[in-house]
Amino acid sequence: MFEPLLKVDAWVFHLDECAISPISHPADAARAAQIADPVPRRRYARGRAALRRVLALRLGINPEAVALEIAPGGKPGVAGCDFSISHSGPWLVVAVGDTAVGVDIEMPRPRRNMMDLAERFFSARDIRYLRDAAEMARDRAFFRLWVAKEAALKCAGVGLALHLHKAECIVAEQALVGVRWDGERFSVQEFHLPDGTPGAVAWRGENKAQIEWRDPAEIAAS
């Protein structure tokens, strides 16, 4: 049986370095005004401008006309396409698909209680995978599992707190290829940002997906 190839467009923005033309939107301005620290405030404003320009490009409308909504599970959405966003430090990743999609990144940082977090939020199989990893590689393995799970749950449109421990990663020959959650399987493609920050894109089912990494310059001044 023919399985259609899914297509996902993805953009990576370094919010401290990219030149994003500002967008005046009341909701974004109100949220930015609540952020006291100027660095996060600037990153938020640039990130929202980047997101609105990506969605405007996809929908063929003006960025100011993009009407963002928040679904009951907390996932942001817009009529006409499916997208997912993730930010960590100065980085923002936006993924837009022709079907439900989830993306997550997480800048690694030392965690003395990493295994305690795993015991709380990971499945028994995932914990065994971490324990089997070489000690020097355990932090990296932890974040690989974390971003894969979070990307899959974002794709499903559910909150992390109640579901993260129910999501189980699928590892084949050291490659993280999917996540099982609530009777569903999500395919996963891992990636790394220029500084090594791990990330993952997830989509429902086992169909193959073509992920095209787009040039952020194409929307920076649009």
Please characterize this protein's 3D structure.
By secondary structure, the protein is of the alpha+beta class. It has 6 helices and 11 strands. β8 (175-181) and β9 (184-192) form a beta hairpin. The mean pLDDT is 89.
CATH superfamily: 4'-phosphopantetheinyl transferase domain
How many individual β-strands? 11
How many domains? The number is: 1
- End-to-end Cα distance, whole Å, is 41 Å
Give the helix level as a range of percent: 25-40%
Under the CATH scheme, the architecture is Alpha-Beta Complex
Radius of gyration: 18 Å
Features:
6 helices, Ribosomal Protein L22, Chain A, globular, 222 residues, 5-stranded antiparallel beta sheet, alpha+beta
Q: Briefly, what is this?
A:
It contains 6 helices and 11 strands. The chain has 222 residues and is α+β, with helices and mostly antiparallel strands.
Secondary-structure blueprint:
Elements (H helix, E strand, L loop, with lengths): L5 E9 L11 H8 L4 H22 L9 E2 L5 E2 L4 E7 L2 E7 L3 E5 L8 H8 L2 H9 L5 H19 L11 E5 L2 E7 L2 E9 L5 E7 L4 E6 L2 H4 L2
Parallel strand pairs: 1-11
Antiparallel strand pairs: 1-5, 2-3, 4-5, 6-10, 7-8, 8-9, 9-10
